[in-house]
Amino acid sequence: MDLTRACKAEGSYIDKSIAITAVNLVRNLRLPPDDIEDIKQDLWMDLLLRLPAYDPERSSLRTFITRLVRNKRENLRESYRAMKRDVWKAGPSLDEEIELEDGVAGRRGDLLNSDDYDQNVRGRNLTALARLELSIDIRAVLRGLDEEQLIICQLIEDAPSLVAVARALGMSRPTLYQRLAVLRGRFRELKN
């Protein structure tokens, strides 16, 4: 199944589901109506980040989308309730006007770089330089792998689960796990 084509087919359902969820969340939590667009954006970001994990053998795309939106809704609900319990947890607004370098006025958001964004929004702790160095190390390990190991690595990157990888390779899961143990050993050498 082509995920892009399937998502286009479900586009109106996704839009409607996200819009309804955002409006209901704003209404239930008594948030200002201006927050609807922010909540919709949070729901879209979560959906887009998690969509590659979709496995058509486990559920339909519509069910997967519904569950993602519902789970993110509950996470947002808990976050907003936590902020109401302790207003100091919310942090400053990115639109807040502050004095930047050399006395120039600007927004707090102008101070953020991609590393700050990745760490705070996507949960990544590596700087751009660290990600580059890691990428170089990974390429070096990949050059030393045999053809079967490279195929396993590619399938792990593309497949939604290890079960799908084992099926694609026509091997049992225990055999795949043995091969993965060897691969992990090769990648562990990066730490040393």
Describe the protein:
This protein has 192 residues and is mainly alpha-helical. The protein folds into two domains: 3-90, no CATH class; 128-188, Orthogonal Bundle (Arc Repressor Mutant, subunit A). It has helices at 3-9, 11-29, 35-50, 61-85, 114-122, 128-143, 147-158, 162-169, 173-188; strands spanning 97-99, 105-107. It has a two-stranded antiparallel sheet with strand order 1-2. Helix 2 (11-29) crosses helix 3 (35-50), helix 2 (11-29) runs parallel beside helix 4 (61-85) and helix 3 (35-50) crosses helix 4. The chain is flat and about 55 Å long. The mean pLDDT is 80.
List the helices and strands in order: HHHHEEHHHHH
**Major sheet size, sense and barrel closure:** 2 strands, antiparallel
Give the helix tally.
9
Strand order of the largest sheet: 1-2
Indicate how many domains the architecture comprises: 2
Beta percentage is under 5%
Integer average pLDDT: 80
The class by helix and strand makeup works out as: mainly alpha
**Radius of gyration from the alpha-carbon trace, in angstroms:** 22 Å
Fraction of residues in helices?
55-70%
Task: Report the end-to-end length measured between terminal Cα atoms.
Answer: 41 Å
Low-confidence segments: none
Let me know the number of strands: 2
What oligomeric state is this? single chain
Anisotropy-based shape: flat
